[in-house]
Give the backbone structure.
Amino acid sequence: MFMRELNIKAIVRQNVKKLKPYVAKEIPCRIKLDANESPFALKISDIIDEISIPLNRYPDPEAKDLRKAISKRIKVNFENIMIGNGSDELIYYLMLTFGGPVLYPVPTFSMYGIIAQSVGVETLESKLDECFDLVEEDFFNILKTKKPKLIFLSTPNNPTGNTFSSHKILKIIELAREKNCLIVIDEAYGPFCSEKGYLPLLNDFENLILLRTLSKIGLAGLRIGYLIGNSDILSEIKKVKLPYNVDAVSQYVATYALQNFYSRIKKFIREVITERENLLKKLSSFKNITVYPSEANFILFKSTKSKEIYQKLLKSGILIRDMSSTIKNSLRVTVGTKEENEEFIKALKNILDEKK
Ligand SMILES: *Cc1c(COP(=O)(O)O)cnc(C)c1O
C-alpha cells in the first residue's frame, strides 16, 4: 500500500463522507427470513434449459425483449417501461435526473434516503401515524411549502407491511401534479397485496411513476426492476441511464421466465400469501408481542425483548431483521416456506415462554 501520502478524506464529497456503506452482510443461518426474498429455491435450470446469448457482445441497452414481455403481462405500452438493475438503480436514476428535494414518509424503505444522500439531494420526511398511515396535513404542508421534485411512496410499505390509504394517495397525486412534482409509487410488494395498485391511474396523471421489481417474487438474483411512466419522463431518465445497465443473462432469463414460467411464479406468490395469513394468526396469538397487519411478504412485530428474541432466534439458526433502529423494539420476519415458518413460530414460542 502506497496510500500514506494520499488524503482520501479531503477529496471525498461531503455528502458521501457522511454516509455509511449499506450493510447487506451475510449472517450465516439455516433459515433465512431477513431480506423479503422468496423462500422457494429456484435455479436457472428450473426455468430454462439453455441460454443462447452471445457473450462476446454487449447486452441490448434498451432491453427490448424484456420490456415487451413485461408489456404483454401488464398491458402497458413497452415505450412506457424502463428496466433497471433492480429498482434500486431506477430510484438512483430518478434522483439523478430530477434532483431534490425528495419527499417520503418515515419509516420506509431505507434506500430512498441513502440514495438521496449519495446523489446529494435534500430529503424531506413526513412522519407516519401510529397505524403507519400517511398524515395528510403534514404531507400536504411539506408538499406546499418545500417544493419537492419527487415523492416516494412504498405501498405496501417496507418495513411496516401496510398499504397507505388510497384516498390519501390520490389527493397527494393531485396536489403533486398541481405543484409540478413527480410521484413515484413503489409497488415492490404489490404482488402480495389485496388491493389492485395504481397502474389504472397512469393515464390520468402524467406525474405518476410506478416502480416494480422481480426481486420479491422469486428472482432477486437477476436484479431486474422496472419503471412505468409517461414517455416524456422516460426520455429525461434515459440521459443518465448507463447504456448497459442490465446484463444479457438477466435480460434473457427474466424474459423467458415472464413468458414461460409465470404460472409457477404466481403459484409461489399465492403460497406466500397463504403462509403470511397463517403466520399473522399465530403471531397474533402470542401475548407479549404486538403484530402489525401486512399486505406484503413480511411481517413487522414488536416486543420489549426484541434484541433478545433476535439473538436467540439466530442462535437456533433463524435469521430475521432487527428493525429497532428505525422502529423501537421492532423485528421484521420474511414469510418463509410452511416448514420454515413453523420452525420460526416454535422457536419464538420457546423464547417467549422462557421469559415467564
Ligand atoms: C426490496 C425493495 C426494493 C428494491 O428492489 P430491487 O429491485 O431488488 O432493487 C424497492 N423498493 C422497496 C420498497 C423494496 O422493499
Notes: The radius of gyration is 21 Å.
